Amino acid sequence: MSLLYASNDWYPVADAACLARGPRKTRLLGTDLEVLGPFDDPVVTDMGGRRFPVQVRYDHLWTTIGDDPRPLFDIPEADEPGRRHVPCGVVRVKCSPLRAVENFLDIAHFPFVHTGILGAEPHTEVATYKAEIREDADEVWATNISFYQPQAAKSAAGGITTRYEYRVPAPTAAVLYKTCPPRPKAMDVIAIFVQPRSETDCDVWPWMALYDDTTGFADLAQFQQEIFLQDRSILENQRPVKLPLDPKLEIPTRADLTSIAYRRWLKRRGAYYGALTDQT
Amino acid sequence: MSDFTLYTYVLSASCYKVRLMAALLGVPYDSVAVNFYPGFEHRSEAMLALNPSGTLPILRAGDLVLTETQAMLGWLATNHDRTGRWYPAADPVLGPQVLQWLGFAARLTGSAGLARLHAILDWPVDGEAVRKAALKDLRELELLLTDRVLAGRTWLVGDHPTIADIACFPHAALSPDAGLEHDGFPAIRNWLYAVRSLPGFVTMPGIHELLELREPADPQ
Asked: Judging by beta carbons within 10 Å of its beta carbon (0-12, 13-18, 19+), is residue B220 exposed, middle or buried?
């Protein structure tokens, strides 16, 4: 049931940089796959030679192994002129794909895990914000978030109070809109696209679309990689490994509003792949 | 005024060795971020011209270019530690012991370092083989450190931390990144703790500062 639901979403399985080095052997939802380049005309097959549909979006190659796939979500900002796209490569994490998304949505851990970058003591308070399931779009949104950050982006000259909005357009993807230091009226876009290898093991592809014409690609990608690797050891040690959807299993606080909405939304959809529910 | 330029990658444990040594000795430097991953920029023509072996880090100080991490630690200590304690090269007993550990550190890079790259970035190596090799090296380190503890010592060589400790520290500290936890290595854990408590210690992703050492909160 949960695998059937998950199989009808699209997932990233490669980017241009990794295909340039040769075919990628990988795994998606427990199925071993081979991804063959070139990036603009790729082929994705399983070990039996069955071919799966592909599309190139957001600097990644996406595939689906389901028979009746839902459309890949839209990120309209990806097509806005002037934004620099920064695909940050892939990081493997031994955790539930849903835990990886949930961690990305969490603000409260910034001062403790990303000390001196995304947060700092004593600025640990998460001010009241709004989290909701938007029925029309069938997405989770968190808005009106502001948080003090010593180094909000590579382009930030010092500490600023950053505005945040989160959007969850699919169970294994999350998009973050945050204050763009050089252009206070615009928002930078930072996303994670999660490739579930299994229910407890995933490849995470961070991606950014920024207004920053001065910082080098290496600095931009490493800024994001540093932050993500700070999360990795914590993600690998979360217990239970699968994300509990039953409210009896973990006690949330007010700072966890987005997480509560996300878990409720997953449950409502039956998106149980990587989740711990009373039915699994 | 910076004393050298370091070509570096944020997730590299070898680059971190040099950053850590420079921080502990208070040596200022400039950094150049190299897109090691996902760009493989260290294998670009420009970088290969600087370092034909295609590795990071690279240290440049005037006309001097160093491409071997352990040599960089030696250069830093020789040029910036007036006490001579971080690299007692002239000491007939301690000097060779430091060199012995630098060799071990290079071995750790080939085992634990590769196991970590495989676990994190899906590096194209035999994951099981490098993990096994890493486990063997960690067991050896545990045994040698246990001997030191029984002799009443904290550091790998002598009575003061040396470049040997800094050379071996990052890959040992980061082994949980490859699923090699420290639970079974009490001597390694104590030694990691000692390194992390050095004044001027800096972190990298996966290696945290010792919060326990912070000043206690104001009781008011």
From this structure: exposed
Residue-wise pLDDT tens digits, B183-213: 999 999 999 999 999 999 999 999 988 875 5
CATH number at residue A117: 3.30.530.20
Number of domains in chain A: 1
Give residues with Cβ within 8 angstroms of A88, minimum separation 6: A205, A206, A207, A208, A221, A224, A225, A228, B38
Q: What is the pLDDT of residue B220?
A: 45
Fold exhibited by the domain B4-80? Glutaredoxin (3.40.30)
The residue extents of the domains of chain B are 4-80, 94-196
Chain B contact for A229, CB < 8 A?
yes
Inter-residue contact A209 to A78 (CB < 8 Å): yes
Name the residue of chain A whose CA is nearest to B121's CA: A91
Q: Which pTM value belongs to this model?
A: 0.90
**Predicted confidence band at A35 (pLDDT cuts at 50, 70, 90)?**
very high
Cβ-based contacts of A236 with chain B (< 8 Å): 176
Mutation to test the A interface, candidates B122, B123, B211, most A Cβ within 10 Å = B122
Write the CATH number of the domain with boundaries B94-196.
1.20.1050.10
- The 10s digit of each residue's pLDDT in A217-251 is 999 999 999 999 999 989 999 999 999 998 778 88
Q: What range does the domain containing A107 cover?
A: 2-276
Give the rounded percent of residues in chain B with a pLDDT score beyond 70.
Answer: 95
